[in-house]
Amino acid sequence: MKDRYGRDINYLRISLTENCNLKCIYCLPEDFLPKNLDEKKILSTKNVFDICTVAKELGINKVRLTGGEPLLRKDIVEIISGIKNIGIDNINLTTNGILLADKVKFLKDAGLTGINISLDTLSEKQFESITRGGKLSKVIAGIERAYELGLDIKINSVIIKNINENAIKDLAKITIEKSIDVRFIELMPVGQGKNFVGIKNEDIYNLLQNLFQFDEKYFEAKGVSKYYKLKNSKGKIGFISPINSCFCESCNKIRITSDGNIKKCLNMTGHTNIKKYLDENLDKEIIKKILQNEIFGKPEKHLFGKENSDEEIKNMNQIGG
Ligand code: SAM
Q1: I want to staple 243 with a disulfide (CB 3.0 to 4.6 A). Which of 37, 76, 186, 195 is the partner?
Q2: Residue 1 lies in a domain
Q3: Distance separating alpha carbons of residues 14 and 256, to the nearest angstrom
Q4: CATH number for the domain that contains residue 117
Q5: How many domains, the chain?
């Protein structure tokens, strides 16, 4: 369906948990305490199906499952196959990849079409330090297994001043040998992200221009990403620049947090909780109307860095980045 600015909103991101098995320095506070996953406040498997059923009727044809870490959910395979049964074929996952190697075959068999894997460095030591203890080898094993299975893979990297600028070259090189896209996403001033300084995508692009030869004929703007290619490479290099190049005109998303809050925009507080209505077993048409109103009311633009009384104060693991 179209929102009030005429944008076609066809993409739903559902966060399945706030919990994560990593504690990336710019995402989760060090003292974050995981929630009980069986808690009634978290979207149930049925809640997810009910949301997707009405969302599909409103024109949603792509769902992304995120978190926290969505692979911590024991019902993740059931969730994916259920969404597929509802008739949504474009089902994606955003994961840190730690648990991916063992699960990815089941995820694919259930109907998963694409995976975004968050990876900010290829150095074991740096990875351990950014993620506060994560093991890079597990992520690499997950990426290799997903690649063998032919899944559409994108690596998402956030580059932060004095933390991992030296990782840019190695991350970009991945695209030469493998048909994996590497996308640089600018650090957003959200939650813990406010404690760091992100590197502008323009600077990353200029650095890569100096290091590699680009395929001059290749450029693609797809959704909020701008894609380029290195010469003779298999994958693409993407840039998502929420801070230095506002992409809101092409925003096609609506988000739901793991406790059921509908978020019209990443950096705005969500005021409507759909879980409450789902648990009350309200008529499907009423649930649809609630979601429809939220989609229609999306703001024109995000307001990062501006005076904004409705600014999201949660951390990214609670928003579902
Ligand atoms: N655990 C999963 C993962 O690591 O992909 C999904 C959730 S995580 C919150 C999703 C993405 O948000 C990750 O790629 C992470 O790098 C990104 N992220 C977290 N905080 C961010 C920030 N302040 N600005 C930009 N991206 C951020």
Answers
A1: 186
A2: no
A3: 5
A4: 3.20.20.70
A5: 1
